[in-house]
Amino acid sequence: MAGCGCNTMCSPTQKISPKFRKALWIALVLNALMFFVEIIGGSHARSVSLWADALDFAGDAANYAISLAVLSMTLYWRATAALLKGMTMAAFGIFVIVKVIWTWWLGITPEPMLMGAIGVLALAVNVVVALMLYAFRDGDANMRSVWLCSRNDAIANIAVIIAAVGVFGTGSMFPDLFVAFIIAYLGVSSGLSVIKQAKAERKQDRHSLGIKV
C-alpha cells in the first residue's frame, strides 16, 4: 500500500521459470495418485514400508502445493514455506520410526509380491518426477526441498523393492522394517538440512531489508 515501510512484503520476488511451475503441477498430480495406490496396496500387503511411502507421497503432494502457492512471493516467504516443509519431513521420519517399532511388536510379515509390484510402480513415478526437477536442485531452499523430496522418494522406492525381495527370500518382516527405518532417516536428515538453509535465507532476507532479527 502507499506509504508502507520497507519490509519483507516489499522485497524483490523471484522470477519463476514456467518449466519449474509446470514440473511442480505434474509432480503434485502424480504424487497424489500414488498416495491412494500405496495406501490401498500397503493395506492389502500389510507392508509398513509401503504405508510409510504412501504417507511420503501425501506429504510430497502437499509440499508441491505449498511450493506452487509461494513461487511468486519474496525470498522470506519462500524460505518460510521451506521451513514448514523441512519440519514436516523431519516429523514424518519420527512417525515412521514409531510405526516400525509398533509393527515389530505386533510381528506382522508383509506379502512380498504385491509389495514389490507397487514398489516398482512407485519407483517409475518418482524417477520421472526426479528427472523433471533435477535442473532446479541448486535453487533456493524452497526449490531444493522439492528436489530433495523427489530424490529421497526414488531412493526409498528402490529400498522397498529390495525389501520385498528380502521378505520373499526369508519370510521375515525385518527387511520391510529395515527399509522403513531408512525412509525415516532420509526424512529426518533431509528435513534438518532444509530447515537449516531456510532459516539462513529468512535471516538473509530480513538483514538485506534492514530489519533486526
TrEMBL record:
Residues 24-197 form the Cation efflux protein transmembrane domain. The keyword Membrane applies. The chain crosses the membrane at residues 23-41, 61-77, 89-107, 113-134, 154-171, 177-195. It is a multi-pass membrane protein. Coiled coil: none annotated. It comes from the Bacteria. InterPro entries: Cation_efflux_TM, Cation_efflux_TMD_sf. SUPFAM superfamilies: Cation efflux protein transmembrane domain-like. The keyword Nucleotide-binding does not apply. It holds the Pfam family Cation_efflux. It is found in: Membrane. Gene3D superfamilies: Cation efflux protein transmembrane domain. Keywords: Membrane, Transmembrane, Transmembrane helix. This is Cation transporter. It comes from Acinetobacter corruptisaponis.
